[in-house]
Each structure stands twice: as C-alpha cells, then as structure tokens.
C-alpha cells in the first residue's frame, strides 16, 4: 500500500501553517511537517501508522514528521452532490521553522522530549485537550503575528502535559532526530538498529551503564511501558509496516521483524493488535480502499 505525500499551502508571510480543512480528508498520506489535528466535525476510522481506530468529533492528535495517517469519515459526511460536511483544524510546522538553535535551548528540553515521542502519534485527553482546542479555535480570528505567539502557548502545554496516549507502535515509523539525549536514548537507538536480531539484556545494560533494576524502572518511567513490551511493540510495529507490502508473505514478515518463528510472531501480534497478521493486512486494505 503506497503512501501519498500531501503538502498544504503555506503563505509567504507565515512561518507555519494554520489551516481549516473542509474537503474530504480521507487520503492515506504523510508529510515532513509536525502536525496538530483537531476534528471539529466528523466520525469514522482513523489510521495512524499501524493503528486502526474509530474517531469521533473533537478528536485531537499530534503527529510526527512523515508518520502516515488518514481520517476517513463515514459515508454520511459525503453528500450525493459531492459536498463534504466534515471539518478539521490543522497546524503544521517543520522542524526548523523558528531556527534549529531554538530546539537546543535548555528551557526546551521538555518540549523536545514530547516531540521525540510524536513519531508514534499522540492522542490528547482531559484538560490538555480542552486547552489546545480552545487555542486552535481562537487562532481562526487572529492575525499571523498573534497566531505565531499563540504557538508558544501550545508549546508550553505540550512541554508539561502527561494527558496523552501513544497511537502507533514504536517502530512503525523510525524516531525522528529531535530526541532526548542520555543513556536511555542510546539504548533505544541500539534496539532500533538491532531489533531484527536477538537482543541480549547484558548488552543493553552495558550501554545504559545501569543495574538491571535501575534500568527497568528508568525505562518504564521514560517510555511508559516495560522494556520487554517496548521491544515487542517495536517488532510488531515494524511487522505492520511490512504487512502493508502485499508482495511479502506472513512468514517473511515474521522473520524480517525479529521473531524466531511464525507461531511466536502470531501469538505476540494478536496479543498487541487484537487480530492476526493476515486479519490486520485485510483490514488495512479494506479501510484505506473503502
């Protein structure tokens, strides 16, 4: 299944994109910009990376660079005369829209950490969701200059919030370069490069320079899941990426994703994705082509 690159128009007097989408947003696509998407009106199926889920109005999601996605509204939003009745608000910005030195400022370490997580997609809830939606709606009546400074209010919220859930698996889309530093980051880089092979815990602990207990506790705190779960989701996420290629059979996908045998692959895949690899492939094709 191919992913189309779609770019929104950016005004010459603006450094980022604020866009109100009133056309059908049902094309599976990606783009280099980070993106904050608010669905004001619509419901249907959302695909982000390897995740397929239902969405309703007021859906609010943040997406990393080149993370494939689509919001496919139910048929009720496509009228017989060709008009589309859904509505979304979109903010997009490239990594260096303020200049690369902005991200190196020590005050931005929390924001940088959040953006590194965006390669998986983040769905907001709670007060964070309400605050971000209010800002996005208010930006509609702002001047370009006012919108620019409103972005810093959004960045402040993103820096401190814990009210979000990851959408896609860790390895469906490789982590972008805007990532936190330190021993855990080194560990993640190591497993991203070697997850197709047998990863030994002693090698991981050596890279982290931590005891087993310290490492497991630190990793779970940082990445919101145990190390073993992260590695499994990493492999399953990569498998989902391969399953989008119809020329590969399931056995090939299993071994290419780091699983030692097909039975083990099927068991872990079903545990994480709640369906078989074959079922996932059929569902993905059905949802995208519907």
Automatic annotation (TrEMBL):
Keyword DNA-binding recorded: yes
The entry's keywords: DNA-binding, Transcription, Transcription regulation
UniProt xrefs under Gene3D superfamilies: Homeodomain-like (1.10.10.60), Jelly Rolls (2.60.120.10)
GO MF term (any one): DNA-binding transcription factor activity
Pfam families recorded: HTH_18
UniProt cross-references to SMART domains, sorted A to Z: HTH_ARAC (SM00342)
PROSITE patterns: HTH_ARAC_FAMILY_1, HTH_ARAC_FAMILY_2
SUPFAM superfamilies: Homeodomain-like, RmlC-like cupins
All residue ranges annotated as the HTH araC/xylS-type domain in the record: 185-283
Protein name listed in UniProt: AraC family transcriptional regulator
């Amino acid at each position: 299944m191919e992913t189309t690159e779609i770019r929104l128009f950016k005004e010459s007097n603006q450094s980022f994109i604020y866009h109100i989408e009133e056309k059908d947003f049902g094309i599976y696509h990606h783009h280099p910009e980070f993106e904050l998407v608010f669905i004001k009106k619509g419901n249907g199926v959302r695909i982000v990376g390897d995740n397929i889920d239902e969405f309703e109005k007021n859906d609010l999601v943040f997406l990393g660079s080149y993370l494939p996605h689509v919001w496919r509204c139910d048929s009720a939003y496509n009228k017989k005369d060709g008009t589309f009745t859904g509505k979304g608000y979109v903010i997009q910005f490239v990594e260096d829209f303020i200049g690369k030195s902005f991200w190196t400022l020590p005050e931005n370490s929390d924001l940088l950490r959040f953006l590194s997580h965006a390669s998986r997609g983040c769905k907001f809830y709670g007060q964070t969701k309400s605050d971000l939606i209010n800002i996005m709606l208010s930006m509609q009546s702002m001047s370009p200059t006012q919108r620019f400074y409103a972005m810093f209010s959004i960045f402040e919220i993103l820096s401190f919030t814990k009210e979000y859930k990851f959408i896609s698996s860790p390895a469906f889309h490789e982590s972008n370069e805007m990532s936190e530093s330190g021993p855990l980051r080194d560990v993640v880089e190591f497993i991203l490069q070697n997850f197709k092979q047998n990863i030994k815990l002693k090698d991981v602990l050596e890279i982290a320079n931590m005891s087993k207990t310290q490492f497991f506790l630190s990793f779970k705190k940082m990445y919101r899941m145990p190390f073993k779960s992260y590695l499994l989701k990493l492999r399953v996420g990569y498998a989902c990426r391969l399953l989008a290629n119809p020329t590969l059979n399931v056995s090939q996908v299993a071994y290419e994703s780091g699983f030692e045998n097909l039975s083990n692959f099927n068991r872990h895949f079903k545990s994480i994705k709640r369906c078989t690899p074959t079922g996932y492939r059929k569902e993905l094709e059905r949802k995208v082509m519907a």
